[in-house]
Amino acid sequence: MILLTLALALPLQSEVRVHSVSDLSQEFSFYMDGRFHAQYLKGVGRDVRNWGSLHRLDLTNANLLVLVEGDAHVPYTQASIDHVERFVRDGGTVLLMADGADPMPPGAVVAERLGAKLTTQAAAKPVRAAGGAQLAVEYRGGRALELGSDWTVLVEDAQARPLLAKRRIDKGWALVGSRGLFGHQPDAKDPINASWVTPLLVELASAKAIDPARPHRGPFAEHVRELGPLRLEFTDGTQPYADSIASEYALVRPHLVALTGVEPAEGMIKSLLVLPTGGGGFSSGERIAIAAWWGNYPHERYPMVELISHEAGHSWVLPHPEPLWNEPIATYLGIRVGRRLEMPEAERTLADQLAAGRRHDPDFTRVDPLADDAPRDLVWGKSYFVFEELERLHGPGALAKYFRTKRALVAKERAHYTMDDCVAVWSRAVEADLFPFFRSLAFPVDAARTELEGR
Ligand SMILES: [Zn+2]
After folding, report:
1. For each of the chain's 455 residues, which pLDDT tens digit applies?
2. Cα of 330 to ligand 1 centre, how many Å?
3. Distance 305 CA to ligand 1 centre (A)
4. d(CA 108, CA 125)
């Protein structure tokens, strides 16, 4: 049995049979940015991500296109749906992971073009493999599909309604299934149903031969606008948000310079990518990526100002991320920018987090924020408390003094930057020994553990 498994598995390992494209253009998620591949195609397929508009995607050397239902802010365009259909008719396989809802998600139109209908009927558990197949099916819940007779149902719910099905379309395959049949964790630790999803994807994708010797590349957002030192990157779908996000950045930037007393670290923030999502952003230092409709933008502005400041703030902090409060300090910069712009939400955000921290440590003197089990709200609340106290006791401009001193004092090539180092830099910045102050707030810091001279 073991030998047989090995014999079957080996050819799969030794040759790449799937060139997949995970689409990020209709809705960005960290899951689709590599985790789907890690869960279902590792060892058998090479994956690239599509960051550009879907209808411009070159699929000549790809045989699997992975789509999600998408976000209503970026509907699938007619051109993109035509492109998907052409890809399938030419032999490609499209996997659409989607569930019906009211109103229907944009992916419903793609499903329809493939001949399937998303519905709002909740799937009834237990679910099972259709046609008596012996597959263990794990399911997180979702909605049933409505299909014509030319579909082969692979998974159905307790009332025999389809949840996953395939359909031959000319030379290729459409595979449509409820999202709950697949993993979703950004850490890729939930590869549910991989034992049968992987062989299924390989089998269907094999309808179109790919050339593993030729490069398989995913395109980046295709529109670029140079805005002084900043390069703005967006797609057809995120274009409606791009200009106003750029102008928010232009508004925020001088405040960040004023608050930190320095320009962003050398080589940082060269580009701003507009992400098709409402859910956050990321920073790679050189590039910050901002969720296009974060916090109901553009109808509400404070959350966007805070997010841009946060992601940009990471580039001010580098080359040495802050200990403990690398995330809190980024949001705190956003709060301070909001305060300078007289946005009332800034004070509310600060007050709420301070209150949440005080629930764990009423006067912030007891709980060690560096402890492994320190609650998140305590870490964030205490961080804000420290920043506000330092400003009150050593301001105005205490934060700027700190950032300027950090740049001057801490060499770029330094291997680590600890809380002891951080307190030494703060001490030098405000010309006072702050180790007792931090110890009074239950930070277990010690000047003897850093060679940076605090005074
Ligand atoms: Zn962050």
Report:
1. 344 444 344 334 447 899 999 999 999 999 999 999 999 999 999 999 999 999 999 999 999 999 999 999 999 999 999 999 999 999 999 999 999 999 999 999 999 999 999 999 999 999 999 988 888 999 999 999 999 999 999 999 999 999 999 999 999 999 999 999 999 998 999 999 999 999 999 999 999 999 999 989 899 999 999 987 889 999 999 999 999 999 999 999 999 999 999 998 888 889 999 999 999 788 888 899 999 999 999 999 999 999 999 999 998 998 999 999 999 999 999 999 999 999 999 999 999 999 999 999 999 999 999 999 999 999 999 999 999 999 999 999 999 999 999 999 999 999 999 999 999 999 999 999 999 999 999 999 999 999 998 76
2. 6
3. 14
4. 23
Residue 57's alpha-carbon distances to 79, 86, 95, 408, 443, in angstroms, are 11, 12, 16, 46, 52
DSSP string, 252-287: HHHHHHHHHSSPPPTT---EEEEES-SS-EEE-SSE
CB 185 within 8 A of CB 172: no
Distance CA(337)–CA(333), nearest Å, equals 6
Q: Which domains does the chain have, with CATH numbers?
A: 15-205 (3.40.50.880), 223-449 (1.10.390.10)
Q: Which residue has the tokens 């930037």?
A: 253
Tokens representing 64 are 């699997």
SS3 30: coil
This prediction's pTM: 0.85
Distance 118 CA to ligand 1 centre (A): 36
CA of 315 to the centre of ligand 1 (A): 10
Beta strands in 11-157 (DSSP E): 18-23, 45-50, 64-68, 93-97, 116-122, 128-129, 143-147, 152-156
Distance CA 290, CA 399 (A): 25
Ligand 1 centroid distance, CA of 440 (Å): 28
Antiparallel, parallel or unpaired: β 64-68 and 271-275: unpaired
